[in-house]
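Assemble and predict.
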Amino acid sequence: MPSEEELYQEHILDHYEDPFHRGSLDGCTHAHEDKNPLCGDVVRIELKLGPDGKVEDLYFDGEGCVISQASASMLLEKMQGKTVDEVKEFSAEQMLELYGPRLTPNRQKCCLLSWKVMQSAVHSPVDGAEGEQ
Amino acid sequence: MTILATERIDERLLLPESIRGDFPILDQEVGTGRPLAFLDNAASTQRPRQVIDAIAGVYEQDYANVHRGIHTLSERSTELYEQARERVRRFIGAADSREVIFTQGTTASINLVAQSWGRTNLKAGDEILTTVMEHHSNLVPWQQVCEQTGAVMRHVPITEDGRLDMVAFDELLSERTKLVAVVSVSNTLGTINPVDEMIAKAHDAGALVLVDAAQSVPHMPTNVAGLDADFVAFSGHKMLGPSGVGVLYGKEALLEEMPPFLGGGSMINVVELDSFTPAELPAKFEAGTPPIAPAIGMTAAIEYLERIGLERVHNHEQQLVARAYDLLSQVDGLTILGPAPEHRAGLVSFTFERIHAHEFAQVLNDQFGVAVRAGHHCTQPLHRLLGMSSSTRASFYLYNTPAEVVRLLEGIVKVQEMFAPKGRTRRRRRSE
């Protein structure tokens, strides 16, 4: 059982309070939104994929607990500049590793929400956007 | 912050703490070695030794399938199972034990009425009147039956302080209303609804009433005949009994007219290869092997509650909820959902500006040993109406203490400190 000091490590609270690219992305080519039906947490991710198949830019928005929102910030920071294949290869286990503290199964769902949204977003072109894959 | 002392507690109305000795599960530490304070009783309660022993006793001495064998064990199990039905009948003040149907729980009880009574009696244009504070289990079964029959749902709104808007109820109730389906105590707001008044008015309008009593039967005296309710649903696991058993009370005349819901063994009289005739009540609605040991265990729970007295249980919880309400309303930034203590049962849900319910549940558990519920408590429409996606809920029962309420408050204050904005900044990467 992790103590909350471990669960809410400072670098996690830093991401929560000062997130990487929270907002919306003008000219996004791909986007997806999903929620955790157990608790109602929501994450939306907007991506701009370049012609070379790289993530040129990306933003997230959402509402939820520290774990769901901080993990989204950490994931986006990690995925910027990666190729779509690299995004697809990034596994759930790697996401939990990126987050850090060991999570109970129910809290893993919080952490993996943004990861699931990201995996769907690269397959979800926005209507009318240029550079669709 | 300084928390002011609360005067609104009458020590004489509290139950003795020695009651906790009956509940072996309460004697443990959780999180970082804190004694467990179990405040998630609206989701499910714990069991006293008497109930655990009763369940073990059935399996050690008496268990066999019921209503089937000629052998000794089947006869004993059948007798205990039917005694359980009679015990439930007396507990809720029903006229006849044939009006007591054992189900898997409240959800199964409501689905039974929706699919049996609803599909038979509802037609396009008919209305089912529920409220915006219903649990999903008293919304979704009616949504399904509306889909099947063309009936439509109407919803009684709530007032600013989380009570049913009875003016709107009067307006929504009409000759089109065929059924009022209402929760007696909201599992989220804690509101005690004026079910007696609603039943009288519904009957005047020619509508039947189903009461979702999952949060009231375990906590206060219930008399279904006195209420004149048509259907009442509740669960064993929320009243110190086992999970897997619940009750549907229905007026005999109504149940007699209703077709069986589930088909199978036990619910039949004669079966041909292409037809059947149903059994008499209550077997007609108990297809398959029923929850034998859970029903017998529920008897022990009822005996335990009756020995203490539901009035005293209610008074005890009123003291705890009044103290919780007083303490929590002094926390800056905290919003309590629902009405003042005099209109609520023993639970308090709250939200906090900018801090998510998960943080409260996690830290309360890990650092304070306090088990609370975080989420939408199966009332998504109500949360949406209140402009939130989740809340934190502390719900009390007869074994909780004023000291546990204080521990809840200490945990809340700690969470508030931990997650207050501190001007933190993320370490920037070079690319930014």
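Chain B has a mean pLDDT of 95.
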